[in-house]
Amino acid sequence: MSGARAAMEGVFAGDRRELSELEIAPQAALADEVRALIEAVIHTEVPETELREAAAAVAALTERLNTARRNRPPAARLGVNGMVKALGSPVTGVLNAIAPPIDVVTLEDGSVHAEFTLTDVYEGPPTFVHGGVSALILDHVLGAAAAANGTPGMTATLDLRYRRPTPHGVPLVVTARTVRNEGRKTWADATITGPDGRVTIEATAMFIFPAT
Ligand SMILES: CCCCCCCC/C=C\CCCCCCCC(=O)SCCNC(=O)CCNC(=O)[C@H](O)C(C)(C)COP(=O)(O)OP(=O)(O)OC[C@H]1O[C@@H](n2cnc3c(N)ncnc32)[C@H](O)[C@@H]1OP(=O)(O)O
What we know:
Elements: H1 3-13, H2 21-43, H3 48-65, E1 75-78, E2 83-86, E3 105-106, E4 112-117, H4 131-148, E5 154-162, E6 171-182, E7 185-193, E8 199-208
Antiparallel strand pairs: 1-2, 3-4, 4-6, 5-8, 6-7, 7-8
């Protein structure tokens, strides 16, 4: 079995520890604090002695958390449809401090949708979102649309058209839908829209359910 097929089956077999919402809450609250920490580390202007003390304090915390570890990022079945969610996802993971995190919902028409705001932690060109971060978000929602269609797969192609810069610090909308399926291949389209209602990025992707 290839690594890709094993990865896909791992998602659906749920062969990893699933947490309940009660178990998730305190760990998600910790991730929220770390998100604020990441932002503070970028912007702080405290003097060097305080920076060194802060680094030592963070190192001590990391050591404390590592005294009891899982060997794989946890998952959970959440929401009305009980879809498996990777809690450590870099896009949606509430336990991942580098994830915004974005709450992606599946609508009745099968499309997926999210409203989100990115801080300058995700900045590329000054005042705008890094194009690779936008690609990460689009890849994820396109994959979620393929999965919502009952035809999940590994990203085989991802095409992006950056129409205009995507600003950070303002509400954005991402939507994706499956447009076609042929055997193991599924195609999906997505857009990111800015607060003025204008599309900033158009994306299309093809997903393949691995053969072996
Ligand atoms: C972990 C997955 C999560 C899914 C979970 C769903 C849960 C839902 C919840 C929430 C949504 C989460 C959303 C996450 C989204 C993020 C997804 C990613 O980041 S995926 C990582 C990046 N992608 C890779 O690393 C792929 C690496 N490539 C591969 O593994 C293989 O190449 C693969 C599976 C793409 C194809 O391998 P073969 O062996 O199955 O395919 P062969 O049999 O060779 O080809 C079949 C047909 O496809 C074409 N083909 C193959 N690869 C192609 C490509 N890259 N581009 C175009 N055509 C390709 C071939 O020419 C062939 O075409 P002919 O049928 O003959 O016409």
